[in-house]
Amino acid sequence: MSLLTDLINLNLSDVTEKIIAEYIWIGGSGTDIRSKARTLSHEVSDPKDLPKWNYDGSSTGQAPGKDSEVIIYPQAIFRDPFRRGKNILVICDTYTPAGEPIPTNKRANAAKIFSHPDVVAEEPWFGIEQECTLLQKDVQWPLGWPIGGYPGPQGPYYCGTGADKAYGRDIVDAHYKACLYAGINISGINGEVMPGQWEFQVGPTVGISSGDQVWAARYILERITEVAGVVLSFDPKPIQGDWNGAGAHTNYSTKSMREEGGIKVIKKAIEKLGLRHKEHISAYGEGNERRLTGRHETADINTFSWGVANRGASIRVGRDTEREGKGYFEDRRPASNMDPYIVTSMITETTILLK
Question: Where is the GS beta-grasp domain (predicted)?
Answer without folding.
Answer: 19-99
